[in-house]
Every structure is written in structure tokens, then in C-alpha cells.
# Entry
Amino acid sequence: MQYRRLAQVAAMKVENGDVSAGLVQALVACAVSYAPVLLTLGGISAYVAIIPRAGGDLPFVANLVYGLLAYFIVVVGIRSLLSPCRPATYYLSLSESVARPLGRRSRMLLLLALIWWLVQELRAEGLLSEVMFALTRRAFDLIWVLNVIWVVWLLRRLHDWRDKWTAPLLISLALFAGLVAGWIGYANLERLIINGVSVSLLLFGLALVASRFFADLFSGLDEGRYRWQKALRQAIGLKDEEYVPGLYWLRLLVKLLLWIAVALLVLSVWGAGEINSDILRYFTEGFEVAGVSIVPGQLLWAILALVVLLTLTRWFKGRLESKWLLNSRMEHSAREALVTTFGYVAVALSVIVALSIAGIQFTNLAIIAGALSVGIGFGLQNVINNFVSGIIMLVERPVKSGDRIIVGGTEGYVERISIRTTTIRTLERADVIVPNSDLISGQVTNLTLRNTWGRITVPIGVAYGSKVERVIEILHEVANNHPEVIRGNPQLSEPYALFLSFGDSALMFELRAFIREVDRRQRVISDINRAIDAAFREEGIEIPFPQRDINFRGPLRIERTPLRRRQAGGARGGGDEEADPANM
# Structure
């Protein structure tokens, strides 16, 4: 069952260019393919390691088994990177015409390393003479250098490296110089150059793959590409369009640690152990710049702590909003204000904890803050005003998310209240960003602060001579028959109609009523207008339109054009000749 499960994972569909998921799939596929060999060698190695007598008489055989096991484990890794086993697919941006030869050459170098290790074991056990060891070493060095040079020049097939000759040429010359140094008797210099160049190339290649792996992994967490990533985002409480909090700093920390480790290992390979110790001492004990003590190790720990605390803050906010406060008797707006306040307080505490881990003394910060307070007060006066207004809005809640408000000439629904601004979505679905200070200091009309009730007014005019009482009765009937109109509520008045004035062309009435949802007032007004029109038509009540009498002062003179002149003008304009009636 476990083998089937691994086979299913190996056959999963992976998005093109996704290194993290592609590498996992390739590792599983290659592990399944090499499972018989790995399990066999692993069982023999365990037997030899657990039972001392099993390998006591033949230590070379035991070392051979260990070496073969390590060889096939590394082969699984190489094939996972450069030539994945089926059913896994190729996933790197590197061209397959380069990747597959590079994989074969890497396996050849690995086989040479295994052979050289076995030769050293034979020499240690006295099974190989010094002369044969020296000859074997020269042949091995030559074959090794040729294969490394082959790999270096193979990379020139890449699109970005086609015109680059300097680096491959210098590496090739350095490797040949190492061979020459060994031939003339400088064996240690030969080992230093060949091992240094080979291991440095290996470390840089692995670092590039690891960097791309973590970059795709973090991008997948931000986008939620796969099921486990979506589950993790839901556990933290993130929405589809939101990013993981603190993930940018985690990216930076991982990339920084990765390349620092590569640099230290490269220095160690080239025999710069003292430099490594000095770097580690500066990294752990720190150094002073202008009287300020800086400890890089503490800074990295502070970044990691900030990432963890921000992630926990987001998780707690998600839990508060979606689960823990749902069963409470608090209003939705109160829950939202509590969650927002908790988020800002938690972020502030996370920053303070990170600064303390970094070793920053708050007494110095207080002095600096006091010196800059005057300048900040003048320069960021509006920002601080909006910030304080945002806190007041979260505490007093004169405006809540979902309210329909009118601010200046903007009417719409409150989408989001942040610490500095408030987002209002208008009826035309446009988002308007309003500073919080405008909502606190200016006049705001909140149509749904306490409830969703609202009053509508419907003006109507009827023709002179219409029965006034009958018009009022019809208006009452229309209002009472609409389901959205509120009736029988002691806090509100019943629907009523007013005879307002004598207009120029009509008797002016107005129908007033309260409705349950003020958001639907335009639709309710439309429904009532249609009902009034139908009722007036049925009763024969006329809805007049403005009429005007035009009086002409003096005699009205009308000029007529003779028929012949009109016909002549028509012939010139239309291009067709017509006969004159008088000449026919």
C-alpha cells in the first residue's frame, strides 16, 4: 500500500516551472524506481553494522557495500534534478539537451569518486602498493579533470552562457595547472586546486537549485497552488488574495543563510579555515560601528522571531474572526473592531520582541524618538491625525463595515476600516478611499447606523378637477399594499399622503412612508410609481403635463414660394428635370 501511494505521488500533475513540487515528485519517482537496489544494499549495510563479525574479516567488502549504498542514494538525487524517472516529468528551466548529458557526466564523476575512495581503502589495508597508488592517482586525476572540464564547457550550451568564454577558459586552465603541479611534484597544490574547483562548482550548483526550490515553495504558499498549501493558508486564516504575513522576511533569511553557508564551505575547501573562524566570531559576537554594537546572528534570530510572531498573529486573528467570537453575543462590528485592535497590538508587540532579540536598547530608541518627535509631529501631522481618528472609530464605532453612508458627495457602503483610511464602495461599484479624519471631523450621514429603516417620499401631481380625497385614498392603498412599507410600528408613523400645493399645471401631492430596507428605496419608489399609475388609469385620474399658450403680437405673415420656383430649385438640387405644369 505504501509503494502504491508513492507511485501515485510520482504520477501527480505538476505545474510547468514549479521546481519545489517537481523536485518532490521526481525524488519520489526515482526512490520508487531504485527501491529494490536501495533496500537490498540498506539491508546488507544494516546487517554488517549491527553484527560486527559480519564485516570484521572482510572490511573492504563492508566498505564496498557502504560506498555502493551512498552511490545509489546520490544517483537518486542527481536523476531527480537532471533526468527524472518516469512517470515524473522534467521541471527545470534548464534545457533537456543540457540537463541529460549533465546528469550522465555527474554520475560518471560520482562513480570516479567511489572508485577513488575504494582505492584509498585498498591502500589503507595494505592491498595496494605505493607505486600502484601513485600511478592510479595520476590516471584518476586526469580522468577527473577531463570530466569536470567537459561539464564546464557543456554549460556553454545554455542560452545565457553562449557568448561567455572567460569563466570556462579560466576554470579549465586552473584544472590543467593543478595537473601540471602534481606532475612536477607539488601534490598538495594539485589536491587544493582540483578539489577546490570541483567542490566549489558543486556547491554553487546545489545552491542555485536550493534557492530556486525555496523561491517556488514560498511563492506556492503565497498563491496556494496545492492542497497542502491551501490547507495551511486556511489554518492561518488567509483569504485567496492575501499573502502570508512575514514570508518576505523568511525568504530573505533563507536566501541569506543559504549563500552564507555556501561562502563558508567554499572558503573551507580552499583552506581558509582561519577566515571562517573569524567570520563566525564576528557573526556570533558582533562588531561595533560608530559606537553601536551589531551582532549579525542576533539580527537573523530577530528576523526569524518576527516572521513566526507575525504568522501566529495572523492565525490568532483568523481564529478570533472565524470561530472563537462567532458564538459570542457581540455585534459583527464590535467583533471586527476587536479583531482589528488585537492585530495592531500584536504586530506592535512582535516588533518590540524582535527588536529586543536583536539587542537594540530601548533607552537609545527613546532618546532618538524624543529628538525626532518634533519633526515627526510637523511632517506627519495628517498621518497621525488619521491614525488617531482610526482608533476613535474602532472604539466609538460611529461607522461600521457594511453601513451605507454619505460623506460629502460620496454615497456608498463601508467596505473596510483600517487604522488610517476607510474604503467606501459606491453604488457604481467604485472604491473611494477616505481619510479617517474626514469621518471624525466632518459631517457623515449614516443611513444604517442603528437599523436599516428609511423613509421615502413620492411626489405626484394630478389634473385640476380631480377628487382630492379619492387621490389621497389611492395613495394610502398603494403604500399599504407594498410589502416593504412598515405598518403598525409604534416607533414610526404610518404611511400618509399630503396635499402640498396648487402647481402651475397640477394639484401637487406627496406620499411618505417608512420602508424596512433603505438600500431598496429606489426599487420601492419605482414599484409605488407603477402602482399609482395603474390605479389612476383605472380611476380615470389624469396626470397632467405642462402646457403653454403662445400669443402672437401683430399680424402673422406667411410667405409662399411659387410652384415654378420650387420646381426649378428642386431640379437644380436633385439633378432631375420636371415639366412645367403651365406648359404641358
User: Anything to note?
Assistant: The chain is about 60% helix and 10% strand.
